[in-house]
Structures are given as C-alpha cells and as structure tokens.
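Sample entry (182 residues):
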Amino acid sequence: MSQPPKGNPQIKLVFTGSVGAGKTTAISVISEVPPIMTEARPSDDVAFRKNSTTVAMDYGELTLEGGIKLNLYGTPGQRRFDFMCHILTKGALGLIVLINNAHPTPLDELDYYLNLNADFLKDRPAVIGVTHLDEAATPGIEEYYQCLAERGEYWPVLKADARSRDDVTILVNALLSVLEFG
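Predicted structure, serialized as tokens:
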C-alpha cells in the first residue's frame, strides 16, 4: 500500500483451508507476537494425521512498513467447524486459502473452500497457497489455475511451505498486492 490510512491502521486477513495445510504454522512463523492458538487433540479421523488441530481460531500480528498492522486469523480445517469461517471473515479484506497437495483430492478441497467462502469472495480477493508439494507433486500449479479458470476466478496460486517465513510472507504480499491493485 502506497500510503497508509490515518490513525491506527489495521488490516484483517484470514487463512483458511484444508486440515494439515499449515494455517497454524503459517501464522506462527510470521507473527510478531506469540500467536494465540486453540489447539486440541482431534477426536475424529484427523487424529490419524496429526496430534492436535485448531478448534476455534489462530491469531497473530504483523506490522508492515508505515505502521500498518496485519491482524492474521486462521480458521479450523475440520468441516464441523466451518461456521468459524463466516465468523472470522467478518471485517476481513482478503483470504489466503492453503491447500494440502498431499490430500487425496486437493482440487476438490480448493473447490470446497472457495464455495464455503463464496459470499465473502464476491467482492474480496483471495490468494491460493499450495502446500506439501514435496509430498505430492501432482496436481501441479497449472491444474490449480485451470480449476480457478473453470470457476471464472483468477487469483494468484503459489507454491508455499508453511514453515518458511519467506514463503508465507510472499503469500501475504501477494494478497496485499491484489488488494492494492485488484
């Protein structure tokens, strides 16, 4: 953003996406404050994949040049907590959708999260981050673009390692660029 808003400028961004895609990790690696996480032991099939999972939200903060503060929220990935997406996106300016490419049907996951957030995305942008490409090379980034094009949506799709501060920063910067120039 070329000129920060006056006062105490804050921007709310939301990370959403499939279980195990790295939402909690992504917020943790870029937050300047100790992140707030609502992790609990999974009580369903998620327990076979991970020891803990987000049950309400994650929260972190990042300050950009010019003093703009990003409030970063992460949604739970389990579908029984989908209602949290609608709560957490209120007042947000954009969405980062993380998709675990090692999921058995990652393109279906992308479609699911875009549909879940369809009302929000009518007038706000998204960036798609594809994680776990080291575990599953297919589908490739082009197939994600093709999936978006079939929906009539044209947002950036980027490879991302949620453990990498640089990769997560690129996702955030891509979303901020879409907000600024979109």
